[in-house]
Amino acid sequence: MERHYVGSEIGQLRTVLLHRPRLSLQRLTPSNCQELLFDDVLCVERAVEEHNQFAQLLRDQNINVLLLSELLTETLENPHARKWLLEAQLSDYRLGPTFAQPLREWLGEMPADALSRYLTGGLTWQEIPESLILQRITPQAHSPFITRPLPNHLFTRDTSCWIYQGVSINPMAKAARQRETDNLRAIYRWHPLFQGNHYINYYGDEERRYDHATLEGGDVLVIGNGAVLIGLSERTTLQGVEFLATSLFQHHQANKIILVELPKHRSCMHLDTVMTHLDHDTFSIYPEVIQPNMPCWVLTPDGQGSITHQSPRPLVKILEEVLAVTEIRFITTGGDIFESEREQWNDANNVLTLRPGVVVGYDRNLRTNEKYDKAGITVLTIRGDELGRGRGGARCMSCPIERDGLEGNR
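The structure corresponding to this sequence follows.
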C-alpha cells in the first residue's frame, strides 16, 4: 500500500504527479490564450519534448512519476466515477438539460482514454454527432468549444497539494482552472491508488460554491516540523487559508501557519514563484518581493477548534525557530536588476527540490543557477523555452504525493 505523506519541501522526493500536455496546448490560439491564462501560444511538440525530459530526469533520480491523464483514464473505468465526473463537468446548469443529458450519454459510452482526453483537452462542436447539435434549442455559441481545454493542468502543484498526512483539493480562483478540481476529486475518490488508503481530505472535496475562499498549491510550502508557509496572493485568499488551517489543526497535522503577503499581480502569482526551500537552512528568494525582515502573520490553534491570529513578526525569525537553525541563508535571484527581473519571470526561483541541496530548474536561468552552484546547491537543469512560457517552473509542474520529512521520516 502506498503511503501518501509529504513532510517537507526538501526531504527525499519519492512520488510525484505530473501532467504531460498535448491536446490542451494544441487548442491554445492567439485569440484564446489570454482567457486560458497563457501569455502566448506554445510550440506543442517542443513543449511535450521538454516535459518528457523533465519526467525522465525525475525517473533517473529514482522518483516514481505518476501522470495525471493516465490516472484519470484508470479512474474513468469506474462507472460511478464516470457518471459523477460527467455530471460535474457537463451539468444541466452549464449546458441546459435538453442538451446536457444526451451529451453525457454519448460521452459515457466512450472508452476511458478518449473520455479522459476530452475532459482535459476540451470538447468542440465539430467533435460531437450532428444529431446532438440538433437537440439544442438555441443556436450554438460563437466559441468553438462546448467545454474549454484545461492547459493549466500542466501545473499539477496548484489543483491539489499534499500536506503531511493529507491533501487539500483546492478551489481555484480563476474560472479557466476550476474544472481541474473536479478531475482531481474523481481521481482521489475512485482511483485504486487512493481508494482505501488512509489519508485526510483537508479542504475542497465537497461540492459547494467556495466563493472567495480560494486556495492554490503554488502558495503552499510544507516547510516541516508541523509548520506550513502560505502566500496570500492573487489566487489564494485569507478566507481559503483559514478553512485549510482550521482543518489542519483539527486533524493535528500542523501547529503553525505562516502567512506571507504578496503583491496581487501575475509576475508573482504564487509564493513559489518568488521563494522556494532548497536545503535545511537555505531558501531562494526574489528580493523585490521577499525580504528576510518582512512582517509575517502566524495562525495557531486556539485549543477550542478555531484559530488564533498572532501579531506579525519578521519572516527570518519565524523560519529560524521553525527549522531550528541558527541562521537562514537566502539566495537572491541572479544578475543585475534587469537580469534578475527576467529570470524571476522565467521561474528561476521556482525550482523543485529532490532532496536537500539538489534541485531541478530551467537551464535558461544562467545567473541564478550560478548563484545556486556557488552556494553549494546542485541544479539539475531541463530545457524550458516552451514550457516556461506558461509561467511555471519545475515546482509548478509537479505535485509531490510522497516526500520525506526534514529528518528523513516517512
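The chain has two domains: 5-67+150-403, 72-147.
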